[in-house]
Amino acid sequence: MAIIVVRAPIPGIFYDKPAPDQPPFKTEGDSVAPGDSLALVEVMKTFNPVKSSKNGRFVRYLVENEDELMAGQPIAEIDVD
Amino acid sequence: MTVNVLQPGLSTTVQDLGRPGFYHVGIPLSGGMDRYALIAANLLVGNDDGDAVLETTFLGPELQFLEDALVAVTGADLPPLVDGVEQPVWEAFSIKAGQVLSFDYLRSGARSYIAIAGGIDVPLALGSRSTYALGGLGGYQGRALKAGDMLSVGPAKRPAGPGRGIGPELHPPLPTVTELRMLPGLYWHRMTDEAAANFFEDVWKLAPEADRIGGRFRGGRSPKLVDRPQPFGAGSNPSNITDACYPYGSIQIPGCLEPIVLHRDAVSVGGYFMVGTVISADMDLIGQLPPNAKTRFVKVDMEQALEARRAYRRRLDRLRASLS
């Protein structure tokens, strides 16, 4: 078990949920599988999912919903299997 | 020579220097948003100024080269990797048959130009290989690249080798606050004196929805306009005018809210007043603004705008001289 950091692939606006009236993609302790969406980044009028490439357990988000992101910025932690 | 697109990146398009001459019939200029970087990438690999390259946006593609090639990446600081090994930007490097070109995270800027010796070989559309995605014209099937696309590259035109680079003194600046010089235009008088002063005083941030069509700027004070009866044919909002041509670089303020600067894939006509036009010498800078980048507008007159254009050309001359 080791904590890894998930980074924003692109700059833009960070969202931790698929829509304003829905719960966050992941909360602490949720299982994470490769391909699971963890967040959305909005840029150029598109919402781009950030997907996990690992198996593990979700730890936490490192930025607030609707924060401005730089590319490469850490956005979440996963405790990988 | 063929390049296999394994991953397309966020919005990677084939671009050259564009297709001027059709704006009056609604076909925009298109072409690279940072023309200096596009030309530099071409010169580094022995291409002509206006050969077709790939323009990336924020996120680089993953490309597998099926034959040996000479490549250069300029523009944003988006570090290229060949089979995972970092390569310099603003310098030509070799890729061997079978190797994969990918990219690390964007460090600064927004758009990179990937030139391959010989140039991307897509059919000419109205005299240009540039992609106008909104109109489905030019480039690779009129659209941004997708995984599985196979790009043809033309034969190399002249000898060039790896290791040839462009010194940092000839890289364009990527400042913390970008100053965009603008020439006030036909509708400048529509703003109150206070609104006009605020426009130049305020720091504006590029909104994340900015694309090749245009960029909206937020964070400054919305302008007040001088009262007038709306002219025949104009809409009811004070920012509406009787439809007029929109120049490349023109700054419109729809609804008197936030300025939008039109760029290479802009619409050509519409009914919003334009306070002025960003000078041609500064249009490249907009192509390198990441979301939320801070900018200020700086007022210049025609003489200063033309001098800035000459200075831009002199910088290109120095670039050429440094490589010959």
UniProtKB/TrEMBL annotation, chain A:
<keyword id="KW-0276">Fatty acid metabolism</keyword>
<dbReference type="GO" id="GO:0006633">
    <property type="term" value="P:fatty acid biosynthetic process"/>
</dbReference>
<comment type="function">
    <text>This protein is a component of the acetyl coenzyme A carboxylase complex; first, biotin carboxylase catalyzes the carboxylation of the carrier protein and then the transcarboxylase transfers the carboxyl group to form malonyl-CoA.</text>
</comment>
<dbReference type="GO" id="GO:0003989">
    <property type="term" value="F:acetyl-CoA carboxylase activity"/>
</dbReference>
<keyword id="KW-0443">Lipid metabolism</keyword>
<dbReference type="InterPro" id="IPR001882">
    <property type="entry name" value="Biotin_BS"/>
</dbReference>
<comment type="pathway">
    <text>Lipid metabolism; fatty acid biosynthesis.</text>
</comment>
<dbReference type="InterPro" id="IPR011053">
    <property type="entry name" value="Single_hybrid_motif"/>
</dbReference>
<dbReference type="InterPro" id="IPR000089">
    <property type="entry name" value="Biotin_lipoyl"/>
</dbReference>
<protein>
    <recommendedName>
        <fullName>Biotin carboxyl carrier protein of acetyl-CoA carboxylase</fullName>
    </recommendedName>
</protein>
<keyword id="KW-0444">Lipid biosynthesis</keyword>
<keyword id="KW-0092">Biotin</keyword>
<dbReference type="InterPro" id="IPR001249">
    <property type="entry name" value="AcCoA_biotinCC"/>
</dbReference>
<feature type="domain" description="Lipoyl-binding">
    <location>
        <begin position="3"/>
        <end position="79"/>
    </location>
</feature>
<dbReference type="GO" id="GO:0009317">
    <property type="term" value="C:acetyl-CoA carboxylase complex"/>
</dbReference>
<keyword id="KW-0275">Fatty acid biosynthesis</keyword>
<dbReference type="Pfam" id="PF00364">
    <property type="entry name" value="Biotin_lipoyl"/>
</dbReference>
UniProtKB/TrEMBL annotation, chain B:
<dbReference type="Pfam" id="PF02626">
    <property type="entry name" value="CT_A_B"/>
</dbReference>
<keyword id="KW-0378">Hydrolase</keyword>
<dbReference type="InterPro" id="IPR029000">
    <property type="entry name" value="Cyclophilin-like_dom_sf"/>
</dbReference>
<dbReference type="GO" id="GO:0005524">
    <property type="term" value="F:ATP binding"/>
</dbReference>
<protein>
    <submittedName>
        <fullName>Allophanate hydrolase</fullName>
    </submittedName>
</protein>
<feature type="region of interest" description="Disordered">
    <location>
        <begin position="218"/>
        <end position="237"/>
    </location>
</feature>
<feature type="domain" description="Carboxyltransferase">
    <location>
        <begin position="24"/>
        <end position="315"/>
    </location>
</feature>
<keyword id="KW-0067">ATP-binding</keyword>
<keyword id="KW-0547">Nucleotide-binding</keyword>
<dbReference type="GO" id="GO:0016787">
    <property type="term" value="F:hydrolase activity"/>
</dbReference>
<dbReference type="InterPro" id="IPR052708">
    <property type="entry name" value="PxpC"/>
</dbReference>
<dbReference type="InterPro" id="IPR003778">
    <property type="entry name" value="CT_A_B"/>
</dbReference>
